[in-house]
Amino acid sequence: MYIVTVAPECAPIAKVGGLADVVYGLNKELQLRGHTVEIFLPKYDCMRYDQIEDLHVAYENLAVPWYASAINCTVWYGRLHGLNCFFLDPHSADNFFNRRSFYGFNDDSIRFAFFSKAALEFMLKSNKRPEIIHCHDWQTGLVPVLLFELYKYCGLERQRVCFTIHNFKYQGTAGAHVLTALGLHHPEYYYHLDRLGETYNRSVLNFMKGGIVYSNFVTTVSPHYAWEAHNGDQGYGLGPTLNTHQGKYGGILNGIDYGMWNPEIDPLIPSHYTWKTLENKTSNKNALRNRLLIRDGHKPIIASVGRLDPQKGVHLIRHALFYALDRGAQFVLLGSSPVAQINDEFWGLKHRFNNNPDCHLEIGYDEELAHLIYAGADMMIVPSLFEPCGLTQMISLRYGTVPVVRWTGGLADTVFDRDYAPKPIHERNGYTFNDPTPAAFEVALDRAIGLWQYYPGEFYKLMVNGMRYDFSWHQSGTHYLNIYEFIRDK
Q1: Which residues pair with 66 in a beta bridge?
Q2: CA 78 to chain CA mean position, Å
Q3: What is the reported pLDDT for 172?
């Protein structure tokens, strides 16, 4: 099968969040299975160019119709760890992708509207005819709109679109000027509530809604998050649209790259281990303590790794620090926040606990340290207010580090409470709580710490249970291929 992925990110060259990991991991899996895959990305000036091999011009003078004229583009080709990538480079006074940052500009909607049109224009003029076009998040939500309303009449009539939503909170909106730029006439047609019209703001068009309406299939990144978006408040206003299109909507759990996150082969940890040699994990715990100057002792290490974003339940992470120390545990944190106030708060906590021998806060990100924490900690907290999928808990399970998580989104699909999950005991792998409150979190933490302290044999079994789960891209890749085949044959 010939599959083209159109996306705003791809790890490790253009990464803001988990979307980038999905684009890389899924395409790598599809290619390993023998499919032809290509990835279309903007040519950002802030990409990791050191990770791209054989970067060269593949197509010159791609004239993309824009308003009453056209913007000329150069299309570059390069290989990303064996994956074929094409980078669209517009030559425009708007300077769309040369801003030293991926997102965060007032004209983000128009930037990615152009990227969506340029991607289709490149397919058309270079005679690329993929069977499947896989689009990711609001930045590419206009691709299926343009394909159906314009490009199917120009030679792209057989292409089918799978649209994956990574976070419903960010939907992408713009006024009627985007229609003029794209050459989509009759604004009243596109403003209709059955197309791109916003229910709560009739003056804007919704890119994500367009992706849902016009795609052949819509996925999100875990089954439970799909349910929450459809039936709860996680759809951020798109629940009715999902209901209308529920016949082509579902959740597929993201995978993780076991080539990168695997204690059997991880080059960034001092001692390798499997679920059969789990006792070797102790060496990594000792190494973590030595690196962070935490004292030795018969105490569990509770860890937090990731962005200190409000979505992640920052107030609960802070509470866990104090609770862990009160319960005789040790606490390690690695992360930073895009919110200055939160970052300042955790810098304050770092200074406050600087001399505490049972605590270390590392504000920032360090790839090597992240691997050592996963391998050396006993428990990992993920108290997210909402979590479309989450990678932290799946990585933790792979490393035999017991996750303590809030029961939401992808966390609910991957972590099964040792005491209450409706699964056989050998399939339970962590602890969960429902209410996003300190009291509810304490109950889950208390059960985890208590098992570690008083029933070490049972805690060991829980670690083994987690390590035996398979959250690789192999299973997720199978689900996506089933969708591709389903929509291709329609």
Answers
A1: 69
A2: 23
A3: 97
